[in-house]
From TrEMBL:
Molecular functions (GO terms): methyltransferase activity
GO-annotated biological processes: methylation
Keywords attached to this entry: Methyltransferase, Transferase
CDD domains linked: AdoMet_MTases
Domain Methyltransferase residue range list: 38-130
Protein origin, superkingdom: Bacteria
UniProt source species: Kribbella koreensis
Protein's UniProt name: Class I SAM-dependent methyltransferase
């Protein structure tokens, strides 16, 4: 098992290829219009982070994976971003950011015990009227039921050699899903990293945000601000610091 879920450089180098910019990046970049300071919380390889860079704007990328950040720092344009190695505790409570974004599963990695103080830390980084936006999966869609070995097994050729990969869910309960991601390169070693995701309902997300000092909480069913329904697989959350 690896402590850093992206501790294998070979996997990190594949991350941007597997997570190309799409409607999510377009949504977050549009939110940044007019912003002079943007924080990308859980920035990973910094693909979205670097897209925020423009003259006169301060951009910070925060992530607890040293492997991810080391890769991010080597990419073109990385010198225009301030990279911070750590979790929400490393985000200064400066109260001057216009926007904090959190893409992918970042907010779903946060435990129930940590969720309140993480939201408070992000609120403290924002100026009054600043915006926090992130995505989360709808627990009612039960996405984990599609994460078994048969549904997720694949093989492909990569710059690091032939790769076999699959997922296996090991635990489900109380909104908490644990799964193993298997990665086997040509050396035959099965590099397994375990991920725990916390699925939250809209009511739980609203309550947490409001308690942390956010108002005007909006939750959409997709990146084009689709109306939220019971069948929505994704929650796109946007909240304003009161």
């Amino acid at each position: 098992m690896t402590v850093d879920p992206y501790g294998d450089e070979r996997l990190v180098e594949l991350y941007d290829e597997d997570n190309r910019p799409g409607a999510d990046h377009e949504y977050f970049l549009k939110l940044a219009d007019g912003a002079t300071k943007v924080i990308d919380f859980g920035c990973g390889t910094g693909l979205l982070t670097r897209a925020f860079v423009q003259p006169g704007r301060v951009v910070l990328g925060v992530d607890p994976s040293a492997t991810m950040l080391n890769y991010a720092r080597r990419q073109p344009g990385a010198e225009d971003v301030t990279w911070i190695d750590g979790d929400a505790g490393a985000v200064l409570p400066a109260g001057d950011a216009d926007l904090v974004v959190s893409s992918g599963n970042t907010m779903m990695h946060i435990t129930a015990d940590d969720f309140p103080w993480v939201l408070e830390a992000l609120a403290a980084a924002l100026k009054p009227g600043g915006v926090l936006s992130f995505e989360s999966r709808n627990p009612a869609a039960r996405a984990w039921e599609q994460w078994g070995p048969e549904a997720t097994y694949s093989e492909r050729d990569t710059p690091a050699g032939h790769l076999k990969e699959w997922m296996e869910v090991t635990e489900v309960g109380n909104g908490r899903v644990v799964f193993d991601a298997h990665n086997v390169f040509e050396d035959g070693v099965d590099t397994v990293y375990t991920t725990t995701l916390y699925f939250r309902t809209v009511d739980e997300l609203r309550a947490g945000l409001e308690k942390a000092g956010f108002g005007d909480v909006e939750v959409y069913g997709g990146w084009h601000e689709q109306q939220l329904t019971d069948d929505s697989r994704l929650f796109v959350v946007r909240a304003t610091k009161s």
